[in-house]
Amino acid sequence: MEATTGRNELRHQAVGLPQTLFQSITHMAPGAAIAFSIYLSIVNAGPALPLAVLLALVACTLVAISIGQLAKEMPSAGGLYSYVARALGPQAGAFVGWCYLLFQPLVAPLLFLIFAWTTRDVVFSDKHGLGWHYSGQWWIWIVLAAGIVFYLTYRDVRISTKAGVILGVFEIAVFVALSAWMLISNFSDITIQTFNPSHAPGGTYAGVFKGMVFAILAFIGFESSAPLGEEAKNPRWTVPRAVVLSCVGVGIFYLFCSYAWVIGTGFNRFTAVATAAANPWRDLGIVFWGGGWVLVFFAIINSALANSNAGATAASRVLYSLGRNGLLPKAFARTHPTHKTPHVAITFQTALGLVVALDHRHGGDRRRDRRLHHRLLRDDRVFQPAPGSEPLAALGAADPRRRSVRAAALLPVLPAAGVSGALRELGGARLARRRLDRRRARAEGEARERRSALQRRCAAARAGATLYTCGGSTRVRHRISRDEVVWAFGPDLVPVLEVEPGDVVTFETNDCFTGQIRSEDDLVTSIDMTRINSATGPVAVKGAEPGDSLVAEILDVRPIEWGVATLIPGFGQLIEQVKSPLTRLFEVRDGMVKMNDRVSFPAMPMVGVVGVATDGEELSNGLAGRHGGNLDDHWHGAGAKIFFPVRQPGGMFAVGDMHAAMGDGEICFTGVEIAGEVDIRFDVLKRKQATWPVTELADRWLPHATAYEYDEALALVADEAARLLVDEHGFSLEDAFIFLSVACDAGVAQACKPAEGFGTIARFSIPKIDACPAPFGV
What we know:
Oligomer: single chain
Structural class: alpha+beta
Number of strands: 25
Radius of gyration: 32 Å
Largest sheet: 10 strands, mixed
Shape: elongated
């Protein structure tokens, strides 16, 4: 039977162990925590995430036992504040109470934002949502969340805690079911390597312990049943058990879900895939449950509401206790005459929550940027990017992708590598002066605005990433339209997308003429020569820094069903013997290229332009150099893995100039030029790079070099190949020289002679043997 209470007292003996237990559980917000909070551990812990969670569970359990013992000795609505005040004195207690007020009353408003963002994300979405694009809907969801929480907490502690039980059971059930389904679906991939600290990307032990620190944030809230010390039945028995059981129970839940997350996503690609998704568990729901992702959505917003409810319940009791002890106005110590809830504290809490949440959404852009970025949502354990970005033009920032670039020629090869050392030094000094002048000319404000635009644009691209399954694992796929192109590689490229190592990007590419030649009546002499060799991108790869190699693995090249080749006056070895200009149309179908009724041959789709940002001059996409560019190597098709020397942070990769087929030399200056799509997976090789791009195939690897004449290019590529054999694989220079002669093949990728100003791209084919199985040693 419920005990009676006097005026301005809480309702004694009102809630039992289940309600008190779920006060702690829902304050921990297990659904939102596993979806977002533990997310923060992944960067450091990676696939060793379950180990980091296990260590956090051990640490927090020790704390929970201590708090449980304090709750057993001193049950009070003040919770931690009361424990410290009675153990260490009123001054220490007052300090803890005020510290508590710095964060606990903010839990509810920040969770209103989580509720609003998650709901708006689904309601706004066309693909997995309702397609309601009203931009001002934020305030609707914030007010709705605040209204629900206010009703539950104001009405009666029995109502709010019973609601906590229902909400908590639902969110836990959904995530346990999805986790179990992921483990069953990937049963053959189950491994105990998730508990091996050596797999942590942040370092064997440093990474795991850093991950543990962030995982501890997901446990915050297990102590929140302590403020029910005056309302729980038999509080000296109930509250200590609620504190410890919530910590241990939810910790086991976190451990199970984090393990399933790693196995379901794919052990080897877990870090890249998980950190790229805006809402990773919703995406997992889509992959494994199809339409059942709606349950995950409801579990997350349910968790936000339950956490708000528990946070408001705990905060209002502490406000009540502080008011009762004179540390706040006495009004906070009042309780409702019927409901026996601290209604003044609850009303204050709700009003504060609405003001903070609505002000956060409707404050000025600049003020939001100084506080909490308006594209991020945060509670005491959540950082979550949301879709949306602003175009660079709207911010007044110059977009280097729109600048006109003077093409030196149609498809030239950079001859700079073959000029004398003195000229290179002179050119380098002039280049250094030009770069310094250019950097000084930039206004500081424009640079800040440009960086801000880049951050927003990349966040939007990450939020638009999707998951797909391949070979039993889940990966991230992005897509870039063929409208997002650059016409040159330079040092100041601005990415249209930022990805994690391991991500896959589908690039839509134009043909080298950008669609200007569509029939045999269209001649190269009548087109706009400034719109030649567009490259789709650029893409920044997170973690790629100067001194590293950016690895671009070509997974697939899919050309359309027709392409062209041309004869261009003045270009190619036989040009004096043929009529030009001339255009030939090719049919590309079922793996074959049909030139005419008599001549058909196998297609060998590849990409001609592949490159990264330079460290100096801006080079037309028709040029090849140490950055890559127009390498025109016919081996750059599916299965090729290209290692680019990184000159600028992120690498800034772009690709274009697809060919359905192209022979070594490309002597008439074109292959079968064609539009299409290419899938590329990115990675980063830390602290290793060659001078020019190096390509790895299944059975060989291919260094490249460029110069004006073939013999100069051959000397440079031989030197590059020998350097890699000596530095990476322990050959002596003499043995490398002999090995290159007796076992390796010198070749040419492009050599369109004669043509004024054009050079040659040379390569060496080095077989994969035990002594040199890859371009770079371990």
